[in-house]
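Design request, tokens follow.
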């Protein structure tokens, strides 16, 4: 206890306190070094015993997976369903009075287990009309309207099917007044085959097969239109195809008459500076309201109308026309140019649906003309007056799919019984004249075939 006696005998001096603090600091550093050395030794021993940190964690016991919300794999179904179409694509040839489109196919039930017992196999052809701007924003009844066009029930009682494929044929004639498959910015019209099979263990097997329906119109003769632009004497005659297609171009023949107006000493001329054309696609849809939202549209059977327009093709022409100021009828300017729908724009074909969706197209031509004066003698240059006009005209065009070499189903079927003509006439049995004798044949000169 000398240190205690020393500490109580006299107060420690400043030098003793300083030496003691230095000694304490040295002891602390020594202990810290020994502690770090012990940790390094322990880590080395752990590595020798367990190999690595990951292995050490794996041997510490079961761990909880980090992703607790991982999707669960559904149990395998005892069978699967496929639909194989055997008919050509569904195309309506002609307008709403078309005879329709006939389609047929095979429903394939592929049993993956040893066997499966089914209580029902049903298929429905449904038309879905979906509006993208509904009256009720989150109301499914306002957004989608489903109509069942045809239903098939392939079995009427529980049936057991062995392992392997099993086929069920089906066919249906789509009425020609139905609208074609349409996808635009306001609404969608789709057709789908929905299959539902129920097993004896109440397992449900479903399958959906989209059915694309198109319409093709036969191209009529070219359409000729005349436009008059008062108070001037200018008239425009345009010849164009009334039906155009999403792919390919068509020619537009343009002729302007009345470009010269003669006075006593001078004459007034109109010159074309630029011609612009474009094809506009107009869409209009009436969004119906379900019974819960009738109060928003003013009652039953009403809806909200939406319209949109977009440009699907355009061009500007600044040269290439032929001008003849001496032509009969006040001179004329002629021009022929190709027009087409812009590639990659995915145009919507013309449609008029009972659900309220209407799509139509317009060909719009704008001509900028400038006025100038010139002497009747022909001497001197034409003097621009500074006056100009913008002549605008539009023509309705129908966008439709190409019919190709296909024909309507009613023109492909064999003749009906009542369309078969009468049988050929019977043999003559009461002929009283002499029968013609066959020509003599030289049988001896024919020779025989020897091997």
């Amino acid at each position: 206890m000398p240190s205690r006696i020393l500490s109580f005998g006299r107060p420690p001096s400043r030098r003793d306190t300083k030496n003691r603090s230095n000694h304490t600091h040295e002891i602390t550093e020594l202990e810290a070094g020994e502690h770090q050395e012990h940790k390094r030794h322990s880590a080395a021993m752990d590595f020798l015993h367990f190999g690595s940190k990951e292995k050490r964690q794996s041997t510490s016991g079961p761990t909880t997976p980090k992703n607790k919300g991982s999707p669960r794999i559904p149990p395998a179904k005892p069978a699967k369903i496929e639909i194989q179409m055997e008919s050509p694509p569904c195309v309506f040839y002609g307008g709403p009075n078309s005879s329709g489109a006939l389609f047929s196919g095979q429903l394939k039930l592929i049993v993956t287990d040893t066997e499966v017992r089914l209580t029902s196999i049903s298929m429905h052809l449904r038309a879905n009309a979906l509006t993208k701007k509904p009256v009720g924003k989150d109301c499914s009844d306002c957004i989608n309207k489903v109509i069942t066009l045809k239903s098939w029930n392939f079995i009427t009682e529980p049936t057991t099917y062995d392992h392997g494929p099993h086929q069920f044929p089906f066919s249906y004639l789509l009425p020609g007044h139905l609208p074609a498959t349409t996808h635009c910015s306001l609404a969608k019209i789709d057709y789908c085959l929905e299959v539902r099979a129920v097993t004896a263990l109440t397992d449900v097997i479903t399958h959906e097969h989209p059915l694309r329906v198109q319409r093709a119109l036969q191209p009529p003769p070219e359409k000729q239109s005349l436009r008059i632009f008062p108070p001037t004497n200018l008239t425009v005659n345009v010849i164009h195809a009334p039906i155009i297609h999403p792919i390919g171009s068509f020619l537009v023949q343009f002729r302007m008459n009345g470009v010269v107006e003669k006075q006593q000493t001078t004459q007034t001329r109109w010159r074309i500076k630029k011609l612009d054309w474009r094809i506009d696609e107009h869409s209009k849809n009436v969004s119906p309201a379900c019974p819960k939202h009738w109060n928003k549209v003013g009652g039953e059977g009403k809806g909200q109308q939406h319209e949109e327009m977009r440009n699907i093709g355009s061009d500007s022409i600044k040269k290439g026309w032929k001008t003849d100021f001496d032509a009969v009828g006040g001179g004329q300017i002629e021009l022929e140019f190709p027009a087409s729908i812009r590639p990659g724009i995915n145009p919507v074909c013309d449609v008029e649906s009972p659900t309220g969706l209407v799509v139509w197209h317009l060909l719009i031509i704008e001509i900028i003309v400038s006025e100038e004066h010139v002497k009747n003698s022909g001497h001197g240059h034409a003097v621009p007056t500074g006056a100009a006009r913008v002549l605008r005209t539009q023509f309705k065009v129908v966008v439709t799919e190409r019919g190709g070499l296909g024909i309507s189903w009613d023109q492909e079927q064999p003749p009906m019984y009542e369309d078969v003509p009468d049988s050929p006439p019977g043999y003559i049995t009461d002929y009283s004249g002499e029968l013609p004798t066959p020509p003599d044949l030289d049988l001896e000169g024919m020779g025989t075939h020897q091997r």
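Comment from the thread starter after seeing the answer: thanks! The chain has six helices and 21 strands.
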